[in-house]
Protein backbone atom coordinates (compact mmCIF):
# COMPACT_ATOMS: atom_id res chain seq x y z
CA UNK A 1 0.00 0.00 0.00
CA UNK A 2 1.32 3.45 -0.93
CA UNK A 3 2.18 5.89 1.85
CA UNK A 4 1.51 9.63 1.70
CA UNK A 5 3.39 11.91 4.08
CA UNK A 6 1.52 15.11 4.93
CA UNK A 7 2.54 18.17 6.95
CA UNK A 8 0.02 20.48 8.58
CA UNK A 9 0.56 24.15 9.31
CA UNK A 10 -1.49 27.05 10.56
CA UNK A 11 -1.57 29.81 13.13
CA UNK A 12 -2.45 29.25 16.78
CA UNK A 13 -6.01 27.94 17.29
CA UNK A 14 -6.68 27.54 13.57
CA UNK A 15 -7.68 23.94 14.36
CA UNK A 16 -4.91 21.68 13.08
CA UNK A 17 -5.14 19.12 15.87
CA UNK A 18 -8.95 19.20 15.74
CA UNK A 19 -8.88 18.62 11.98
CA UNK A 20 -6.58 15.61 12.33
CA UNK A 21 -8.67 14.24 15.19
CA UNK A 22 -11.79 14.62 13.04
CA UNK A 23 -10.11 12.72 10.20
CA UNK A 24 -9.15 9.91 12.59
CA UNK A 25 -12.68 9.82 14.01
CA UNK A 26 -14.52 9.87 10.69
CA UNK A 27 -12.22 7.24 9.15
CA UNK A 28 -12.73 5.07 12.26
CA UNK A 29 -9.01 5.12 12.97
CA UNK A 30 -9.34 5.82 16.71
CA UNK A 31 -9.11 2.89 19.10
CA UNK A 32 -11.98 2.36 21.54
CA UNK A 33 -9.90 3.36 24.57
CA UNK A 34 -8.67 6.52 22.84
CA UNK A 35 -12.23 7.48 21.90
CA UNK A 36 -13.43 6.84 25.46
CA UNK A 37 -10.63 9.05 26.82
CA UNK A 38 -11.59 11.87 24.44
CA UNK A 39 -15.26 11.59 25.44
CA UNK A 40 -14.40 11.63 29.15
CA UNK A 41 -11.99 14.56 28.88
CA UNK A 42 -14.49 16.54 26.80
CA UNK A 43 -17.17 16.01 29.45
CA UNK A 44 -14.78 17.09 32.21
CA UNK A 45 -14.15 20.34 30.36
CA UNK A 46 -17.86 20.95 30.03
CA UNK A 47 -17.93 20.64 26.24
CA UNK A 48 -21.10 19.52 24.48
CA UNK A 49 -18.92 18.19 21.66
CA UNK A 50 -15.89 15.92 21.31
CA UNK A 51 -12.56 17.76 21.59
CA UNK A 52 -10.74 15.99 18.76
CA UNK A 53 -7.49 17.87 19.43
CA UNK A 54 -6.96 15.44 22.32
CA UNK A 55 -6.35 12.71 19.75
CA UNK A 56 -3.02 14.25 18.71
CA UNK A 57 -1.69 16.47 21.52
CA UNK A 58 0.52 13.96 23.34
CA UNK A 59 2.44 16.12 25.81
CA UNK A 60 0.88 16.98 29.17
CA UNK A 61 1.55 20.69 28.56
CA UNK A 62 -0.20 20.43 25.20
CA UNK A 63 -3.33 18.91 26.71
CA UNK A 64 -3.39 21.37 29.60
CA UNK A 65 -2.89 24.48 27.48
CA UNK A 66 -4.83 23.31 24.43
CA UNK A 67 -1.93 24.11 22.10
CA UNK A 68 0.53 22.08 20.05
CA UNK A 69 4.14 22.44 21.18
CA UNK A 70 6.04 19.65 19.47
CA UNK A 71 5.65 17.80 16.16
CA UNK A 72 3.34 14.80 16.49
CA UNK A 73 3.29 12.10 13.82
CA UNK A 74 -0.04 10.36 13.32
CA UNK A 75 -0.33 7.10 11.39
CA UNK A 76 -3.57 5.78 9.90
CA UNK A 77 -4.85 3.99 6.82
CA UNK A 78 -7.87 3.87 4.53
CA UNK A 79 -8.64 0.99 2.14
CA UNK A 80 -6.65 2.71 -0.62
CA UNK A 81 -3.70 4.40 1.11
CA UNK A 82 -1.66 4.78 4.28
CA UNK A 83 -0.98 8.22 5.73
CA UNK A 84 1.60 9.83 8.00
CA UNK A 85 0.53 13.29 9.19
CA UNK A 86 2.93 15.65 10.93
CA UNK A 87 0.94 17.92 13.26
CA UNK A 88 3.18 20.95 13.73
CA UNK A 89 2.88 23.91 16.16
CA UNK A 90 1.37 27.22 15.11
CA UNK A 91 3.30 29.64 17.33
CA UNK A 92 5.96 31.81 15.67
CA UNK A 93 8.59 30.56 18.15
CA UNK A 94 8.01 27.00 16.89
CA UNK A 95 8.65 27.77 13.21
CA UNK A 96 11.67 25.45 13.32
CA UNK A 97 9.31 22.60 14.28
CA UNK A 98 7.20 23.35 11.22
CA UNK A 99 10.28 23.19 8.99
CA UNK A 100 11.26 19.86 10.58
CA UNK A 101 7.78 18.41 10.15
CA UNK A 102 7.49 19.51 6.53
CA UNK A 103 11.01 18.49 5.49
CA UNK A 104 9.98 14.96 4.50
CA UNK A 105 6.39 15.73 3.46
CA UNK A 106 5.00 14.97 0.02
CA UNK A 107 1.94 17.17 0.53
CA UNK A 108 0.88 19.87 2.95
CA UNK A 109 -2.28 21.22 4.55
CA UNK A 110 -2.25 24.91 5.49
CA UNK A 111 -5.16 25.83 7.76
CA UNK A 112 -6.65 29.29 7.85
CA UNK A 113 -9.26 30.46 10.34
CA UNK A 114 -12.09 31.81 8.17
CA UNK A 115 -12.77 34.55 10.74
CA UNK A 116 -9.21 35.90 10.73
CA UNK A 117 -8.20 35.24 7.14
CA UNK A 118 -4.55 35.42 6.11
CA UNK A 119 -2.31 36.37 9.06
CA UNK A 120 1.45 36.63 9.64
CA UNK A 121 1.89 32.91 10.27
CA UNK A 122 -0.03 32.11 7.08
CA UNK A 123 2.60 34.02 5.10
CA UNK A 124 5.37 32.22 6.95
CA UNK A 125 3.90 28.73 6.51
CA UNK A 126 3.07 29.32 2.84
CA UNK A 127 6.63 30.57 2.29
CA UNK A 128 8.13 27.50 3.96
CA UNK A 129 6.03 25.20 1.77
CA UNK A 130 7.41 27.02 -1.24
CA UNK A 131 10.97 26.95 0.10
CA UNK A 132 10.71 23.19 0.66
CA UNK A 133 9.13 22.83 -2.80
CA UNK A 134 6.15 20.83 -1.58
CA UNK A 135 4.26 20.21 -4.79
CA UNK A 136 0.69 19.67 -3.53
CA UNK A 137 -0.64 22.13 -0.96
CA UNK A 138 -4.20 22.14 0.37
CA UNK A 139 -5.46 25.46 1.70
CA UNK A 140 -8.10 24.33 4.22
CA UNK A 141 -10.21 27.33 5.21
CA UNK A 142 -11.48 26.16 8.58
CA UNK A 143 -14.24 27.23 10.98
CA UNK A 144 -16.60 28.03 8.12
CA UNK A 145 -19.45 27.42 10.56
CA UNK A 146 -18.39 30.55 12.45
CA UNK A 147 -18.74 32.78 9.37
CA UNK A 148 -22.11 31.42 8.30
CA UNK A 149 -20.54 29.16 5.66
CA UNK A 150 -19.95 32.32 3.61
CA UNK A 151 -18.82 31.76 0.00
CA UNK A 152 -17.74 35.40 -0.15
CA UNK A 153 -15.39 34.98 2.82
CA UNK A 154 -13.96 31.82 1.24
CA UNK A 155 -13.30 33.61 -2.07
CA UNK A 156 -11.60 36.57 -0.36
CA UNK A 157 -9.11 34.28 1.40
CA UNK A 158 -8.60 32.24 -1.77
CA UNK A 159 -7.75 35.40 -3.69
CA UNK A 160 -5.17 36.49 -1.10
CA UNK A 161 -3.38 33.12 -1.27
CA UNK A 162 -3.43 33.12 -5.07
CA UNK A 163 -1.83 36.56 -4.99
CA UNK A 164 0.93 35.22 -2.71
CA UNK A 165 1.44 32.26 -5.05
CA UNK A 166 1.91 34.65 -7.98
CA UNK A 167 4.90 36.20 -6.16
CA UNK A 168 6.62 32.85 -5.54
CA UNK A 169 9.38 31.59 -7.82
CA UNK A 170 8.18 27.99 -7.37
CA UNK A 171 5.59 27.62 -10.14
CA UNK A 172 5.03 23.83 -10.11
CA UNK A 173 2.94 23.92 -6.95
CA UNK A 174 -0.65 22.67 -7.06
CA UNK A 175 -2.99 24.64 -4.79
CA UNK A 176 -6.35 23.19 -3.74
CA UNK A 177 -8.81 25.30 -1.73
CA UNK A 178 -11.33 23.48 0.49
CA UNK A 179 -13.80 25.13 2.94
CA UNK A 180 -14.13 22.98 6.06
CA UNK A 181 -15.43 22.88 9.60
CA UNK A 182 -13.14 20.50 11.48
CA UNK A 183 -15.34 20.61 14.57
CA UNK A 184 -18.55 19.69 12.76
CA UNK A 185 -16.95 17.58 10.02
CA UNK A 186 -18.03 19.64 6.99
CA UNK A 187 -16.00 18.66 3.89
CA UNK A 188 -13.42 16.78 5.96
CA UNK A 189 -14.39 13.20 5.17
CA UNK A 190 -18.04 13.71 4.21
CA UNK A 191 -19.44 16.42 1.87
CA UNK A 192 -21.09 19.39 3.57
CA UNK A 193 -24.78 20.12 3.16
CA UNK A 194 -24.12 23.59 4.53
CA UNK A 195 -22.01 24.71 1.56
CA UNK A 196 -23.86 23.69 -1.62
CA UNK A 197 -21.88 26.36 -3.50
CA UNK A 198 -18.69 24.29 -3.09
CA UNK A 199 -18.47 21.69 -5.87
CA UNK A 200 -15.00 20.30 -5.15
CA UNK A 201 -13.71 17.23 -3.31
CA UNK A 202 -13.69 16.70 0.43
CA UNK A 203 -10.30 16.97 2.09
CA UNK A 204 -9.97 13.22 2.62
CA UNK A 205 -11.07 12.38 -0.92
CA UNK A 206 -8.48 14.77 -2.28
CA UNK A 207 -5.70 13.24 -0.18
CA UNK A 208 -6.70 9.73 -1.23
CA UNK A 209 -6.67 10.74 -4.90
CA UNK A 210 -3.10 12.08 -4.81
CA UNK A 211 -0.65 9.85 -6.64
CA UNK A 212 2.51 9.66 -4.56
CA UNK A 213 4.60 9.25 -7.72
CA UNK A 214 3.04 12.24 -9.49
CA UNK A 215 3.72 14.61 -6.61
CA UNK A 216 7.34 13.42 -6.31
CA UNK A 217 9.48 15.58 -8.56
CA UNK A 218 11.85 13.37 -10.55
CA UNK A 219 15.42 14.62 -10.69
CA UNK A 220 18.89 13.30 -11.39
CA UNK A 221 19.71 9.97 -9.76
CA UNK A 222 21.91 9.94 -6.67
CA UNK A 223 23.12 6.95 -4.64
CA UNK A 224 25.22 7.92 -1.59
CA UNK A 225 27.02 4.81 -0.38
CA UNK A 226 26.25 4.16 3.29
CA UNK A 227 28.30 1.00 3.70
CA UNK A 228 30.30 -1.57 1.73
CA UNK A 229 29.05 -5.14 2.13
CA UNK A 230 31.67 -7.92 2.15
CA UNK A 231 30.06 -11.07 3.65
CA UNK A 232 33.35 -13.03 3.90
CA UNK A 233 31.47 -16.31 3.69
CA UNK A 234 32.41 -19.20 1.42
CA UNK A 235 29.21 -18.85 -0.62
CA UNK A 236 29.67 -15.09 -1.15
CA UNK A 237 33.45 -14.94 -0.93
CA UNK A 238 33.80 -12.56 -3.90
CA UNK A 239 30.68 -10.49 -3.24
CA UNK A 240 31.26 -6.75 -2.96
CA UNK A 241 28.10 -4.67 -2.72
CA UNK A 242 27.34 -1.06 -1.94
CA UNK A 243 24.33 -0.36 0.25
CA UNK A 244 22.37 2.88 0.35
CA UNK A 245 19.20 4.65 -0.69
CA UNK A 246 18.41 5.92 -4.19
CA UNK A 247 17.30 9.54 -4.51
CA UNK A 248 15.93 11.52 -7.44
CA UNK A 249 15.58 9.00 -10.27
CA UNK A 250 15.87 5.27 -10.96
CA UNK A 251 18.74 2.85 -11.53
CA UNK A 252 18.62 -0.29 -13.63
CA UNK A 253 21.02 -3.08 -14.45
CA UNK A 254 23.39 -2.04 -17.23
CA UNK A 255 23.37 1.67 -16.40
CA UNK A 256 26.79 3.27 -16.82
CA UNK A 257 27.71 5.02 -13.59
CA UNK A 258 30.46 7.22 -12.25
CA UNK A 259 31.89 6.77 -8.76
CA UNK A 260 32.46 10.14 -7.15
CA UNK A 261 34.72 11.79 -6.21
CA UNK A 262 37.22 9.45 -7.93
CA UNK A 263 35.43 9.77 -11.32
CA UNK A 264 35.92 6.01 -11.88
CA UNK A 265 33.34 4.55 -14.29
CA UNK A 266 31.63 1.17 -14.36
CA UNK A 267 28.24 -0.44 -15.04
CA UNK A 268 25.61 -1.75 -12.64
CA UNK A 269 25.87 -5.53 -12.48
CA UNK A 270 23.05 -6.29 -10.04
CA UNK A 271 20.51 -4.61 -7.76
CA UNK A 272 19.67 -6.58 -4.64
CA UNK A 273 17.30 -6.25 -1.73
CA UNK A 274 17.77 -8.94 0.90
CA UNK A 275 17.55 -12.23 -1.06
CA UNK A 276 15.87 -10.79 -4.18
CA UNK A 277 17.35 -9.26 -7.30
CA UNK A 278 15.67 -6.52 -9.35
CA UNK A 279 16.13 -5.16 -12.85
CA UNK A 280 15.12 -1.63 -11.82
CA UNK A 281 15.28 0.18 -8.48
CA UNK A 282 12.99 3.18 -8.07
CA UNK A 283 13.77 6.43 -6.30
CA UNK A 284 13.40 5.96 -2.55
CA UNK A 285 14.50 2.30 -2.63
CA UNK A 286 17.07 1.08 -0.14
CA UNK A 287 19.15 -1.49 -2.04
CA UNK A 288 22.56 -3.04 -2.51
CA UNK A 289 24.25 -2.43 -5.86
CA UNK A 290 27.15 -4.36 -7.37
CA UNK A 291 29.33 -3.14 -10.22
CA UNK A 292 30.86 -5.00 -13.14
CA UNK A 293 34.36 -3.71 -12.36
CA UNK A 294 36.33 -4.13 -9.16
CA UNK A 295 36.66 -0.41 -8.45
CA UNK A 296 37.39 1.31 -5.15
CA UNK A 297 34.16 2.49 -3.50
CA UNK A 298 33.89 3.59 0.13
CA UNK A 299 31.27 4.96 2.50
CA UNK A 300 30.57 8.58 1.58
CA UNK A 301 31.20 8.03 -2.14
CA UNK A 302 28.33 8.53 -4.55
CA UNK A 303 27.15 6.59 -7.60
CA UNK A 304 25.57 8.71 -10.33
CA UNK A 305 24.67 8.15 -13.95
CA UNK A 306 27.38 9.24 -16.35
CA UNK A 307 26.64 12.79 -17.60
CA UNK A 308 24.51 13.50 -14.49
CA UNK A 309 27.32 14.46 -12.15
CA UNK A 310 26.66 16.85 -9.25
CA UNK A 311 28.77 19.84 -8.24
CA UNK A 312 31.98 19.07 -6.37
CA UNK A 313 33.15 22.09 -4.38
CA UNK A 314 34.42 23.40 -1.04
CA UNK A 315 32.21 26.50 -1.12
CA UNK A 316 28.47 26.84 -1.41
CA UNK A 317 25.64 29.35 -1.26
CA UNK A 318 22.55 28.35 0.68
CA UNK A 319 19.29 29.46 2.21
CA UNK A 320 19.15 28.54 5.88
CA UNK A 321 16.48 28.38 8.55
CA UNK A 322 18.14 29.18 11.88
CA UNK A 323 17.01 26.91 14.73
CA UNK A 324 19.15 27.91 17.70
CA UNK A 325 18.74 30.47 20.49
CA UNK A 326 22.29 31.66 19.88
CA UNK A 327 22.30 33.82 16.71
CA UNK A 328 24.16 32.97 13.53
CA UNK A 329 27.07 35.35 12.96
CA UNK A 330 29.53 35.61 10.10
CA UNK A 331 32.88 33.87 10.70
CA UNK A 332 31.38 31.23 13.02
CA UNK A 333 32.40 27.57 12.58
CA UNK A 334 30.14 24.51 12.55
CA UNK A 335 29.98 20.93 11.36
CA UNK A 336 27.99 20.43 8.19
CA UNK A 337 26.13 17.13 7.76
CA UNK A 338 25.27 16.43 4.13
CA UNK A 339 23.85 12.97 3.50
CA UNK A 340 26.39 10.45 4.75
CA UNK A 341 29.21 12.99 4.58
CA UNK A 342 30.28 15.67 7.02
CA UNK A 343 32.89 18.40 7.12
CA UNK A 344 33.88 21.49 9.05
CA UNK A 345 32.15 24.62 7.81
CA UNK A 346 32.77 28.33 8.30
CA UNK A 347 30.17 31.00 7.63
CA UNK A 348 32.02 33.39 5.33
CA UNK A 349 29.16 35.77 4.63
CA UNK A 350 25.63 36.51 5.82
CA UNK A 351 24.00 37.95 2.70
CA UNK A 352 20.40 38.68 3.68
CA UNK A 353 17.36 37.91 5.78
CA UNK A 354 14.41 36.76 3.69
CA UNK A 355 11.04 38.28 4.54
CA UNK A 356 8.54 35.45 4.60
CA UNK A 357 5.66 37.61 3.37
CA UNK A 358 7.34 37.69 -0.07
CA UNK A 359 8.08 41.42 0.33
CA UNK A 360 11.81 41.13 -0.30
CA UNK A 361 15.00 40.81 1.75
CA UNK A 362 17.03 42.71 4.34
CA UNK A 363 20.53 43.07 2.90
CA UNK A 364 23.78 42.51 4.88
CA UNK A 365 22.33 41.83 8.34
CA UNK A 366 24.62 41.50 11.34
CA UNK A 367 23.05 38.23 12.53
CA UNK A 368 20.37 35.63 11.95
CA UNK A 369 18.25 34.81 15.01
CA UNK A 370 15.98 31.92 15.97
CA UNK A 371 13.40 31.04 13.28
CA UNK A 372 14.70 33.58 10.77
CA UNK A 373 15.47 32.48 7.22
CA UNK A 374 18.36 33.94 5.29
CA UNK A 375 20.96 33.50 2.54
CA UNK A 376 24.54 32.65 3.55
CA UNK A 377 27.86 31.54 2.10
CA UNK A 378 29.93 28.71 3.57
CA UNK A 379 33.50 27.48 3.15
CA UNK A 380 34.11 23.77 3.81
CA UNK A 381 37.13 21.82 5.00
CA UNK A 382 36.75 19.31 2.15
CA UNK A 383 34.80 19.09 -1.12
CA UNK A 384 31.20 17.85 -0.99
CA UNK A 385 29.14 16.30 -3.79
CA UNK A 386 25.97 18.37 -3.97
CA UNK A 387 23.14 19.66 -6.16
CA UNK A 388 20.97 22.69 -5.79
CA UNK A 389 17.85 21.98 -3.72
CA UNK A 390 15.72 22.85 -6.76
CA UNK A 391 17.31 20.01 -8.73
CA UNK A 392 17.54 17.36 -6.02
CA UNK A 393 16.02 17.79 -2.56
CA UNK A 394 17.98 15.08 -0.79
CA UNK A 395 21.35 16.04 -2.25
CA UNK A 396 20.67 19.75 -1.98
CA UNK A 397 19.96 19.95 1.76
CA UNK A 398 22.10 19.81 4.89
CA UNK A 399 22.13 20.55 8.59
CA UNK A 400 24.58 22.59 10.65
CA UNK A 401 25.74 21.29 14.03
CA UNK A 402 27.30 23.31 16.83
CA UNK A 403 30.61 21.53 17.60
CA UNK A 404 30.51 22.62 21.26
CA UNK A 405 26.97 21.47 22.10
CA UNK A 406 26.29 18.95 19.29
CA UNK A 407 22.93 20.68 18.79
CA UNK A 408 21.45 20.94 15.33
CA UNK A 409 21.37 24.72 14.85
CA UNK A 410 20.29 25.17 11.23
CA UNK A 411 18.84 23.43 8.21
CA UNK A 412 20.06 24.57 4.81
CA UNK A 413 18.97 24.43 1.20
CA UNK A 414 21.73 24.76 -1.38
CA UNK A 415 21.14 27.37 -4.08
- Relative helix content: 10-25%
How many strands, which pairing sense, and closed or not: the largest β-sheet? Answer: 6 strands, mixed
CATH class of the largest domain: Alpha Beta
Q: State the order of secondary-structure elements, H for helix, E for strand.
A: EHHHEEHEHEHEHEEEEEEEEEEEEEEEE
Mean pLDDT: 86
The residue ranges in which pLDDT falls below 50 over 5 or more consecutive positions are 59-69
Q: What's the shape?
A: globular
How many domains? The number is: 3
Describe this structure in words.
This protein is α+β, with helices and mostly antiparallel strands and 415 residues long. It folds into three domains: 3-209, 3-Layer(aba) Sandwich (Rossmann fold), CATH 3.40.50.300; 222-305, Elongation Factor Tu (Ef-tu), domain 3; 311-414, Elongation Factor Tu (Ef-tu), domain 3, CATH 2.40.30. The chain is built from seven helices and 22 strands. Strand 10 (256-260) and strand 11 form a beta hairpin. Helix 4 (95-102) runs parallel beside helix 5 (120-131). The longest helix has 17 residues, at 151-167. The chain is globular, with a radius of gyration of 24 Å.
Amino acid sequence: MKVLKIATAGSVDDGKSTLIGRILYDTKSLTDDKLEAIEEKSRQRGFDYLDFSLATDGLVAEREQGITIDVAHIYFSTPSKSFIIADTPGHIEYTRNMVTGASTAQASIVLIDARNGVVEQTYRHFFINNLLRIKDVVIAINKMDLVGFSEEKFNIIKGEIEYLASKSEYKNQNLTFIPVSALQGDNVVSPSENMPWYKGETLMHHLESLDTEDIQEISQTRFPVQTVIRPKTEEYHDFRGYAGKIYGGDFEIGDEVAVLPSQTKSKIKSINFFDKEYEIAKSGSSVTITLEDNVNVSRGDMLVKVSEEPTIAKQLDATICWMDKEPLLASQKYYIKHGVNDAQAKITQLNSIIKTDFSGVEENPSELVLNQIGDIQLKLSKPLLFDSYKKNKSNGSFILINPKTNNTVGVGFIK
